Amino acid sequence: MARTALDLLNETGLEGLTLRAIAQRLDVKAPALYWHFKDKQALLDEMATEMMRRMGEEFLSAPDADWRVALTTAMRGMREHLLRHRDGAKVFSGTHYTDLSYAAPMEAHLRVLAEAGFAPGAAARAWFTAYSYTIGYVIEEQASGAGHGSGDGGYDLAARAERLADYPLAAAAGEEMFRAHDRGFEAGLAAVVAGIGATLATPGPAASG
Q1: By the 8 A CB rule, do 108 and 62 touch?
Q2: How far is the C-alpha of 68 from the C-alpha of 70, rounded, in Å?
Q3: What is the pLDDT of residue 94?
Q4: CA distance 134 to 129
Q5: What is the 3-state secondary structure (H, E, C) of 63-128?
Q6: C-beta atoms surrounding 71 within 10 Å
Q7: For the CA atoms of 40, 46, 52, 58, what is the dihedral angle to 10 degrees?
Q8: Most Cβ neighbours (<10 Å): which of 14, 52, 64, 172?
Q9: DSSP state for residue 60 in the 8-state scheme
Q10: Which pLDDT tens digits describe the chain residue by residue (209 residues)?
Q11: CA 81 to chain centre
Q12: Residue 205: exposed, middle, or buried by beta-carbon count in 10 A (0-12, 13-18, 19+)?
């Protein structure tokens, strides 16, 4: 059912995704779905879990030994996967996984960080910081109407610049914020990873990765 819901998500978006619509796609009575999902949030939890299962199978389970490479690769893959689904980041954020499919990939990435010299708490903070950046970036990216690899967003930058004529720096920022999302994501991710290395890694040879 979660797979059907993910397929339907691309057609309806999050707002249009209902248990009734999924029941119609499955050709069952809507009340039958309530045996599996008590409400829409329970459905979203299962959809997010299915997305995590796929990410684990595709790229999360065998991280590079270099923590910087591992973290960067994981976040790139996560963004790419979320962009496959309309409103994918909104579906994924704030949900609770329904099984332990996330545990082995997380353990593997935390182990890479620990072996690079990160304390347990710092390793967790490093992972969650990069994860939060990625989810937030994709939420904004998808809200702008931009697709993966698109150089254009949904904002009319000329109209925006006109409204902000008295604020030239804010006006010029639109090009950086709402265009070239791939490049923007990479620049932000590099800043996050560099910041993690500067503030959370244990000083010394072990922290160099």
Answers
A1: yes
A2: 5
A3: 87
A4: 9
A5: CCCCHHHHHHHHHHHHHHHHCCCCCHHHHHCCCCCCCCCCHHHHHHHHHHHHHCCCCHHHHHHHHH
A6: 26
A7: -110
A8: 52
A9: I
A10: 788 888 888 888 888 887 888 888 887 776 666 667 778 888 899 999 999 999 999 999 899 999 999 999 999 999 999 999 999 999 999 899 999 999 999 999 999 999 999 999 999 999 999 999 999 999 999 988 755 334 445 678 899 999 999 999 999 998 888 888 999 999 999 999 999 999 999 765 444 44
A11: 8
A12: exposed
Q: Locate 19 and state its tokens.
A: 């248990």
The pairs formed by 52-59 with CB atoms below 8 angstroms and a separation of 24 or more are 52/97, 52/101, 52/102, 52/105, 53/101, 54/81, 55/81, 55/105, 56/101, 56/102, 56/104, 56/105
Left, alpha or beta for 26 (phi > 0: left; psi -120 to 50: alpha)?
alpha
Contact between 97 and 45 (Cβ < 8 Å) = yes
Instruction: Specify the pLDDT at position 136.
Output: 96
CA 87 to each of CA 9, 25, 141: distance values in angstroms, whole numbers, following the listed order: 8, 19, 10
- Candidates 121, 111, 104; CA nearest to 71 is 111
Question: Can you read off the two tokens belonging to residue 15?
Answer: 């707002």
